[in-house]
């Protein structure tokens, strides 16, 4: 199955479709491989923490923290896709993120879902 077979939910670098749904229209699950996840923990930069503290007093978006969280989520998702590919999957269904504070020092981000092999219905 190629990237062109899906139409969405993938980047040009990925041969693994990642969707939040439990199925993909026009496809059937040929094989359920099982749970896959990508995990990363990132600490906040001291300058970002100070800036966020000051910004929280006046309100508004905490751009430094937003950037860090986006990078962290992307890394977790890349690790999930790597794990799915290594296990022979061409798709991950029921994809989700879980974000928690890690010991007050940063953010733990876990991307998880169910690795499957999809075929056209």
Q: What does the model show?
A:
31% of the residues lie in helices and 38% in strands. It has a single domain (3-120), classed as Translation Initiation Factor IF3 (2-Layer Sandwich). It is built from 2 helices and 4 strands. A 4-stranded mixed beta sheet has the order 1-3-4-2. The radius of gyration is 17 Å and the shape is elongated. The chain has 121 residues and is an alpha+beta fold. This is UPF0145 protein ATE80_05130. Belongs to the UPF0145 family. InterPro entries: UPF0145_dom_sf, UPF0145_YbjQ-like. It holds the Pfam family YbjQ_1.
Strand order of the largest sheet: 1-3-4-2
Mean pLDDT: 82
* CATH topology name: Translation Initiation Factor IF3
Number of helices: 2
Gyration radius, to the nearest Å? 17 Å
Structural class: alpha+beta
Specify the helix fraction band. 25-40%
The low-pLDDT segments are: 1-12
Distance between the ends: 13 Å
Which geometry do the CA atoms define? elongated
Provide the CATH superfamily. Answer: Hypothetical protein apc22750. Chain B
The assigned CATH architecture is: 2-Layer Sandwich
Pfam family, one: YbjQ_1
Family: Belongs to the UPF0145 family.
Organism: Streptomyces kanasensis
InterPro entries: UPF0145_dom_sf, UPF0145_YbjQ-like
